[in-house]
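This protein record is not my work; I was only asked to verify it. Would you go through it and say whether the fold makes sense for this chain? Here is the record exactly as it was handed to me.
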Amino acid sequence: MIGRRRRALAAALFAGAAVSAGAHDGSVPFNGADPDMEHADGAWWIYPTGGDVLHAWTSRDLAVWRRGPALLRLDAVGWIAQDGAPRHHLWAPDMVAADGRYLLYYSVGPQNPTPSRIGVARCDGPAGPCTDSGRPLITGGNGFEAIDPAIFIDPHSGNRYLYAGGSAGATLRVWLLTPDMVGIEREVPVETPPFFTEGAFMHERNGVYYLSYSHGSWRHASYSVHYAVSASPTGPWHYKGPVLVSDGTRKGPGHHAFLHRPDNGRWLIAYHRWEGQTGDGPYRGQRQIKVQEIDYEADGSIRPIMMQ
């Protein structure tokens, strides 16, 4: 998913994150950042950061990806302009299917001088179009940045959780959603895990809950994916360490999503990284999205992910 310190370079960086139209051969990464990944209607879907417009990319084979029509446009969300900020952006979306419905959660910035916010929209399907709920779901403030929404539906309890937060405040917060998933029922107190910066993601496997997240600075080699485990979706967390880090030329891997393959039972990770870079950063230009399979050890730990 993106690191979240957007200041003077915000406009240029969002332009760099925007994905080009048309089709792309997924044997190499394609331009974009902050991917959520889903499987629906017999296809794979990636939802990247958008800037002014959020789009879905889709593939039937995890190789050739095509960009679909607009999911949600900045100017279609009426409450965004209410804070009077001169410029806003949409980023880090998370599409969720539940009860036959599709819901799109997304971040709205800037974080300064106005608070960041998280919105939610109802969608006609995985390809949209989506209609905003009419109000922000979460508003940041008092040192907390309301960014990077990630939804987790607990397969054991059925509870619907929203995970969010990070960047400058580097604080994780979790809320229990209302049954319709467009409102907050209550906040669930959680600890912020070690080395947490942003981009939290929750998945469950064999009764173990995996909280993964990005650490470091998004424009530097320090950006990486770490994780912790728990017997519950809200902790306490047992830190397990980094699982995806920079290599010789591919730097700053992070803001990721895991997905269980329905066809063969394997697991995938979608993440972004900087290609062809040397040194520790800061890097400029466009980040690329990559999808690859991951493995688990016999004890349930995630095997270190070697970038392909």
Remarks:
- The CA atoms of residues 7 and 112 lie 8 Å apart.
